[in-house]
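Dear Dr. H.,

I hope your travels went smoothly. While you were away I took the liberty of generating a structure for the chain from your last submission, since the lab meeting agenda had it listed for discussion. I wanted you to have the full record in hand beforehand rather than looking at slides cold. The sequence, exactly as received, is reproduced here:
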Amino acid sequence: MYKIKTKNMSYPKAVMELKPSKVVPGQVGLFALKDFKENEIIVNKNTWDESRLISWDEFNTLDSITKKKLVDFCYKADDGIYAPQDINQLKIAYFFNHSCEPNSYSNSEGDYMSKQNIKTGEEFTIDVEALMKKTVI
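The corresponding predicted structure, in token form, is as follows:
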């Protein structure tokens, strides 16, 4: 077993987990392991990585499995798909599923926040369409 010593740092408490979605059958969702109060940060903006623009021309050269993952998880725009540097290294924030009546939102800094009180065991949802409209890339 590897041991890494940290100076006066407490280990972060687990506050979320991935498990089968209740919102999107056959997919995974992100669930609360604690109660979140309204306007509490769920996921810090630093969890996102949309730094690679894959043009539609480049997208068309990719294999079908990679295309599906990019379409499922990334922002689509007129000039291509804004994606992480590596689709195999998705951060936890990518697992918020879409809802037209979400319990979460993105604030002006890009943090994912609780829109209302969220109970332990509840799946986090966000309005992806509204998020894409306000996102300036």
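Two observations you may find useful: The beta strands are 16-20, 28-32, 41-43, 52-54, 75-77, 80-83, 97-98, 104-106, 112-114, 125-126. The chain has a mean pLDDT of 88.

With kind regards,
E. W.
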